[in-house]
Amino acid sequence: MLVLLAFIIVFHITSAALLFIATIDNAWWVGEEFFADVWRVCMNNTNCTEIGDNYADYSTLQAIQATMILSTILCCIAFMIFLLQLFRLKQGDRFVLTSIIQLMSCLCVMIAVSIYTDQRQDLHQKNSEQYYRFTSEGRYGYSFILAWVAFAFTFISGIMYLILRKRK
């Protein structure tokens, strides 16, 4: 049982780390001379521009930012609740609250990445010519892929918490 508990804790911490990296790092959309995410756009690895109100569909990017941040926060809260339930829960009970919060984190990641996938082309085409070339020259970066992996990890851990019973 101790090995299973250690695996679940490591799996949850890995999920949280993936969410932090995917949310913070600037590699959702990359090309030869640029990289971009939902926070800023960098050209030639030196000229970085924050994405602000002047950016077309800024509200869509704010939705992506908010859901990624919310998913990271929910994942951390689920871990803390799991640790509390580990010591407070009666034997034989399930970690339902932890599971619900972790599945909400999973849902937030899925929403953010799905919106980004759907709107990526529109977001960059509506801006100036400088940003238009992102659509044709770029590809999804590792932070975008990590966000999808974090989605899978949070989903799996949410299901694991739902199935897991507290034992001696």
Shape descriptor: elongated
Architecture (CATH level 2) name: Up-down Bundle
CATH topology: Butyryl-CoA Dehydrogenase, subunit A, domain 3
Q: DSSP helix count? A: 5
The CATH class, by name, is: Mainly Alpha
Low-confidence stretches: none
- The SSE order reads HEEEEHHHEH
Radius of gyration: 19 Å
Strands of the biggest beta sheet: in what spatial order?
4-3-2-1-5
Instruction: Sketch the major β-sheet.
Output: 5 strands, antiparallel
In whole angstroms, the N-to-C terminal distance is 8 Å
In terms of DSSP E residues, the strand content is 5-15%
Overall pLDDT metric: 83
Number of strands: 5
Helix content: 55-70%
Number of domains: 1
Produce the secondary structure layout.
Blueprint: H1 2-24, E1 29-30, E2 34-36, E3 40-43, E4 47-50, H2 58-88, H3 96-125, H4 129-137, E5 139-140, H5 142-163
Antiparallel strand pairs: 1-2, 1-5, 2-3, 3-4
Function: Functions as a key regulator of cell membrane composition by regulating proteins surface expression. Also, plays a role in regulation of processes including cell migration, cell proliferation, cell contraction and cell adhesion.
Membrane topology: Multi-pass membrane protein
GO molecular function, one term: protein kinase binding
